[in-house]
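Batch manifest, entry 17 of 40.
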Amino acid sequence: MKRVRVRRTRMRKQKGGWLVMTAKVAAVLAVGGLVGWGAWRGGVNLGIFRGAKARELVTAAIASHAAEDEKKAKALVDEAMKLAGDDVVVLRAAVDLYGDRRDNAVMPALKKLLGREDIGDEDLERAARVAVEWGRLELAPVRALEEWRGGEAGGKTEGRMVLVARWMLMRGDREEAERRLREAAIGSRGGEAELGLCEVLLSGGVEGVGEGLDRLERLIGDGERALRVRQRGAELAARVIGVERVKEKMDESRLEGFRGAFGALVARVDPEEAVDYQLGMHAMELAVEPETRQEVFGRVMEEFMPLAEGLQLRIARWLLEQGAGDRVLGIYEGNPHWGDPEEWEALRVEAMLRGQDFEGARAVMARETAGLSGLRRAVFRYRIAVGSGGDAEEVAEEVAAGRMGVLKAAAEGSSEAVREAAELAAGLGDVELAAGLYDLLGKDPEYELLAKLDLAGLREKRVEGRAGAMAVLEGLVSAWPRLEGVRNRLIQLRLLEGRAGAGDPEAALGMADEARGYVPYQVTAMVARLVSGKPGEALGLLEALGERGRERAAAMSPVVCAAVLAAGGRKEAAVKVRAAMGSKPLTVGEKALLERWMPAGL
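Output type: C-alpha cells
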C-alpha cells in the first residue's frame, strides 16, 4: 500500500509539474503573441501614418506648384517620396512635378508607377508626357497614343491632343502635328496647345516661321496664360533664335515685341529666375544684332555682376556659352576669393580649353590647390590630352592614361557628373570611354533607364557591339515591359542577326499594325517579312510609308530598304540606296540579308 501511495504521489507531482510547465509555455506564447501582434499592429499603424503624412505633403506640394513656388513643391515631394515612395498617390504627384521640372528623379518614380497593376489612362498620359518632354520615344505608351490619335472620346482632351500632336512631330509627321495643334489651340486658355503649335511652326520650313514668332511673342507676354507655359515659351525663343531661318525672320520690330513680352514675364517671376529670362533676351539680341556683341556684354556686366555671388556664377556661365571666355577669365582674376571655389575653378579651366589655351589649363591642373573634385580633374586632364596635340605616340599614351583616370575617378563621382562625362566622351567620339561611364551609371536607379538607352545606342552603332546592344535592351525590356520602342529595336536587331525568337516576327507585325506610319516599327516589320520569305509584303509596307516615310526609312536603315527594294524587283532603286551607304561596315546579319536579295553583280 505504501508503494502505491508513493507512486500516486509521484504521479500527482509529475502531473502538477507538467501543468505548471504548460501554463508557463502558454504564458510565454501569449505574451509573445501579444508582443508580435503589437509590433505588427504598430507597423501597420506606422505605415498608415507614413502614407497619410506623405499624401498631406503631396497635397501641399501640388498647392505650391499651382502657386508657382517650385522650390517648395520640389522639397515637399522629395520628403513625401522618402516617407512613402511606393504609394500610388505619391508616385503620381512625383511624376507630374519631377517631369514638369525636368528632374531626373522622374525616371524611378515613373518606373514604379508603371510597374503597378492599378494604373489607368491618366498614368499612361503621364508616361506620354515624360516621353515627349524628354524627347524619348522609347518611353512613349504607343498603344495608348494610337488610341488617342484615333479620335475616341477619351483622347479629345486638350492635354492628350497636345501629347499626340507632339508625338507625331517627334515621329516626323509635322503636317498632322500642326493640324491637331491648331484644332487644340482653338479656345484654349492654358497655352499648352499654342506652345506646341509654335514649336511645330518654328521647326518646319521658312513659310511657318513668321507666324510661329508672332504667336510665340504673344504667348510669352500674355498674362492670362499659365506662367509655366510662358516660361517654356521664353526658353523656346532663346533656343531657336540661333537657327538661320528663324534669325532671317527677326527684324527690329519683332525684336522690340519680344523685349516687351520678356519684360512682362520677368515682372511675374522670382528675381533669381528673372535673370535666366533676361539673359535669354540678350541671347536673342546677340543673334539678331551680332554687331552689338561687346555692347550687350558690357550691359550684362553692368546689370548683373553686382548681384549675389550665386547669380554671378550663372552670368559667367552664360558669357562662356556666348563665346566670351576672356570676360569669364577677367571676372575670375578680379574676384579670387569666391565661396564656391570648385565651380569657379571649373569655369576658369573650361574658358581656357575653349580658348585653346591648353598650356594654361595644364598649369592650373598641375596645382593640387585647384579645388576640383577627382572626376572633374580627371576629365579636364583627359580633354587637355585630346586637344593639345604634339607627337602622335605620346598623345596616344596621354589620352589612354587620361581615359583610365576618368574611369577610375568616376567610380567615386556623383551620377550627374558621371553622366556629363559620358556625354562629353560620346561627343568626342570616344565610344570606349563613353560606354564604360554609362556602364557605371547603370548601377544608379535614378539614372538606370537613360544610361542603358544611351549605352545600347553606342553599342548598336558599332558593328562589333550589336550583341552588347541586344543584351542591354533585353535587360531594359524585362524591367520596363511597357517600353514598346525599346522592344521594337530589340526585335529588329534579333531579326537582322538571326537570333529571333519564335514570337518575334508576329510581335513585329503587330506593333507595326498598331503604329501605322511610324517608320521604326515599319522597318522592323519589313525585316520580319523578308526573313519569312515574303518580299512582296515587305515592299508593300515600304511603299505604304509614302515618299517622306521611304526617305526616313532609307536614312534609318539603308540595309533593310535596299534588301526590300531588291527583293521586290526595284533593282535600280535598291542599287541607289546601296551605293549611298558607301563603305559603311556591316554586321554578319546585314551582309547575309544583302547577299540573299542583292547578290554580287546586281
